[in-house]
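go over this record:
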Amino acid sequence: MEGVIIVVLLIVLAFVFYQTYRKRLVAKRQNSINTFKFPMTISQKVMAQYPHLSQKEVNKVMDGLREYFHLCNIAGKRMVSMPSQAVDLAWHEFILFTKQYETFCTNAFGRFLHHTPAEAMTSPTVAQTGIKTAWRISCYREKMQPKSATRLPMLFAMD
């Protein structure tokens, strides 16, 4: 009986240690996302593709890119679909800076974040699951209940 109690305590301690480690890791990665300076060319490409946007709106697209990366950080290895075409364009442009993008991914996620177009996913349900994940985490970050949100989260309202 004593051995069982020790095993249970060790399991509980391991779980608590892992949860603490995970929270610290997410916070460290969150800081990497918050402080990263995106190449200026990304904003210029967004403005060229969407000439009707003001500089303030282009800055909002860049904020949306940062927000998307926060969703990916929180999601861990779960796939998060991109709900905004404008932010997706910014992400595409960022990927072209391969070395910077790779370094950013390593610091922000601990791995390379691949971009998979919806049409290249293994099934339509994968994309649906990814957009649901994006919705839930976006609502969580904006302090809304996903099933009773009274407005669209920023990334969903972007386009």
